[in-house]
Specification:
The protein has 668 residues and is α/β, with parallel strands linked by helices. The chain is built from 21 helices and 21 strands. Strand 10, helix 11 and strand 11 form a beta-alpha-beta unit. Pfam families: Hydrolase.
């Protein structure tokens, strides 16, 4: 526990106590006395002034997070990502983005291609396609709905709405097909904006609000359809601009107050030129009646683009969230505030219940959750159902539970080992600033939050670092795999190595990935770009790069592993070209089972099958700070090392040699 080493009064007269952590003396924490708040009468005043009347003093406006920060939290960001070049494709709304964003963000280059109705994009964009980090596509709502919807009385005609919807679906198909040519030809990462839904119902009567005759309902349906269509493309994702507008307030953004419902743009466009026309009664500026949040909207739109880009590139991805208990998972302390004789107990409404739900949504994304608390395990276990009410979460929902009196940094290190992840992939949630400081000092890569419970849920659920681009089978089964892995390691400690390996009944199945259309491709790309330890060169691949690799005779050999404890899913990828293994990536969750050597033998077999006679197979390893576990894999598989080239280690398996084949593993 923390101990005090010094106490003193500062110039303000406050008592300061310096605390030191026994196991980490370099980590210190200062407790500063909080002086009682003085009433206005108690404050000394040098000059007596008459108090202003209440009418003369405006009420202070509440301050808080910016809209961009509120919607897309930056609390979990570690790595600064520079967006170099963006291609904007769209109508007048996108023209506004182009005009404003290139001024606001000079560090990024924005190219713009106007796009209305089913126009044809140029054969090539202004810059080479591969120069762009991503493409942002905005389909104009007016082109999709057509001006027929302006004649609102026609919604009373039988069949009119059905015709509008059918035509709109067809136009979306055609416009997407035309606008996605760079995505389909080159694999360019593409974000597609949805439509901003009108603020109010347009139905002819209250009875018909929300029906098919309501334009607001129609636009919502078009958004649903657009989402489905975008999902059918590779490396393309929908961005919910309607949600951004709703959060900021459509009254401050959307131009349906003065323009067509179907225009779907913003009120601060340059068509408002009343000031240049003489009128009997001058019209005041638009913003005197309709305040416009131009800056907030543009900041949020760009922030949405950047965070979506971070998610697709898995920048600073969170793989596990570790929770404290007292004053974090519930209000108060379990041993102090939940005594049977002390009633009522703290309520669960609000943030405790919200955190419980957040935990389940994190699990749904494949993020592991754990508990790390200084408490008595048996006491917590016996009292859990008393404290957690309603019973929406249990100890069994956590993949690892560390409830003891061990320093939390040590417990978190053990959790990282169990999960086979690095501290930089972990977020620790704790209300106690001393504990957060201790963990941050001992494990500086761990991200720590939890001081303000009103922020915790939003940070965990809305940050780009806790989002995933696409759900894979492995993500959905991660909890099950980790539990099986922990059980496997417990069994390993009771047996000698050969006996243990034989008892696993390990099977490996192989998948040849020849196209980005294959269902396993997404997981293979995800694994490649997030694996550091067993990665023979640390190379990251973009969708575009990997598509080109396959088109130029490259091969991708992926594999799945299962044993008697669990199915680990797709855990490894080898990139093959000619007679070389150019890169080998494998999840560390199957490390030590000799799977890595078994797979090399299969890769050698595949490369030699395309050739006649004895064929030498080569491989390389570029050492990185993290990839120690894979540096000897080719030597263990029977290759010999030759002279390095440009700092890269070279290995060869002579044509008359066969690689080592572990006998306890079977090919499924």
């Amino acid at each position: 526990m923390w101990r005090s080493i010094e106490a003193f009064r500062d110039p303000e007269g406050r008592i300061n106590i310096i605390l030191e952590h026994p196991s980490a003396p370099e980590t210190r924490f200062i407790l500063k006395q909080n002086l009682p708040q003085l009433s206005p009468e108690q404050h000394p005043q040098t000059v007596a002034e008459p108090a202003p009347s209440p009418e003369a003093v405006p009420s202070p406006l509440p301050t808080g997070l910016s809209d961009a920060e509120f919607l897309f939290p930056s609390d979990l960001e570690v790595t600064n990502v520079k967006v170099g070049k963006v291609l904007l494709v769209g109508s007048c709304l996108t023209a506004l983005y182009h005009e404003q964003l290139q001024t606001r963000h000079p560090e990024t280059t924005f190219d713009y291609i106007p796009y209305n109705f089913v126009s044809v994009l140029p054969e090539a964009p202004p810059s080479p396609v591969l120069d762009y980090d991503f493409q942002y596509l905005q389909i104009p709502l007016r082109s999709v709905l057509s001006d027929r919807v302006i004649w609102g009385f026609r919604f009373n005609e039988e069949g009119f709405t059905k015709t509008i919807l059918q035509d709109a679906y067809s136009i979306i198909d055609a416009m997407l097909s035309s606008a996605m040519i760079y995505n389909e030809r080159h694999g360019l990462l593409t974000f597609v904006s949805n439509f901003i839904v009108p603020q109010m119902s347009t139905a002819s009567s209250m009875y018909e609000r929300g029906s098919n005759n309501d334009l607001a309902t129609i636009v919502q349906r078009l958004n649903d359809y657009l989402n489905e269509k975008v999902a059918s493309y590779k490396n393309a994702y929908l961005l919910n601009v309607d949600a951004v507008a709703s959060t900021i307030g459509k009254r401050y953004i959307l131009d349906d107050l003065v323009y067509f419902y179907s225009h779907g743009a913003v009120t601060y466009q340059d068509w408002d030129d009343f000031g240049s026309i003489a009128r009997n009664e001058p019209i005041p500026p638009l913003e005197t009646v309709y305040p416009v949040k131009k800056d907030a909207f543009l900041d949020a739109i760009f922030r949405q683009m950047v965070t979506a880009y971070r998610t697709t590139k898995q920048v600073d991805q969170v793989k596990a969230v570790v929770f404290d208990l007292d004053n974090t998972l519930w209000r108060g302390q379990i041993a102090e505030h939940y005594r049977p004789e002390a009633q009522p107990w703290p309520r669960t409404d609000g943030w405790p219940l919200g955190i419980w739900e957040a935990i389940h949504y994190l699990r749904a994304r494949g993020i592991l959750v754990a508990i790390c608390s200084k408490n008595d395990y048996e006491y917590v276990k016996n009292r859990w159902d008393d404290v957690i009410e309603p019973k929406l979460i249990s100890l069994d929902d956590f993949s690892s539970v560390k409830i003891n009196w061990t320093p939390k940094a040590q417990n978190i290190s053990e959790i990282c080992k169990e999960f086979n992840i690095k501290p930089k992939s972990v977020v620790f949630v704790d209300d106690n600033p001393v504990e957060r400081a201790a963990v941050a000092s001992a494990l500086p890569d761990v991200r720590v939050i939890g001081g303000n419970p009103y922020l915790t849920r939003r940070i965990l659920l809305w940050s780009a670092e806790t989002q995933i681009a696409r759900m894979t089978e492995e993500s959905g089964k991660r909890e099950e795999m980790i539990r099986g892995q922990i059980e496997r390691e417990e069994t390993r400690s009771t047996m000698d190595r050969s006996e243990f390996l034989a008892s696993l009944h390990c099977e490996v199945s192989f998948i040849n990935i020849t196209s980005t259309d294959q269902p396993e491709f997404g997981r293979a790309l995800e694994l490649t770009n997030k694996t550091n330890q067993f990665n023979t060169n640390g190379q990251r691949w973009s969708f575009e790069n990997i598509a080109d690799f396959l088109k130029t005779d490259g091969k991708i050999l992926a594999f799945k592993v299962k044993d008697k404890f669990t199915e680990y899913g797709l855990v490894g990828v080898l990139y093959l070209k000619g007679t070389e293994i150019t890169q080998y990536v494998m999840s560390c969750r199957v490390l030590g089972m000799e799977v890595e050597e078994f797979v090399v033998a299969e890769a050698v077999k595949l490369l030699r099958s395309a050739r006649t006679g004895e064929t030498d197979i080569t491989a390389t390893i570029k050492e990185t700070p993290d990839n120690t576990p894979c540096r000897e894999v080719y030597l263990r598989a029977g290759f010999r090392e030759i002279a390095p080239q440009d700092g890269v280690r070279q290995f060869i398996l002579d044509g008359d040699e066969v690689p080592m084949m572990p006998l306890h593993i079977k090919k499924a």
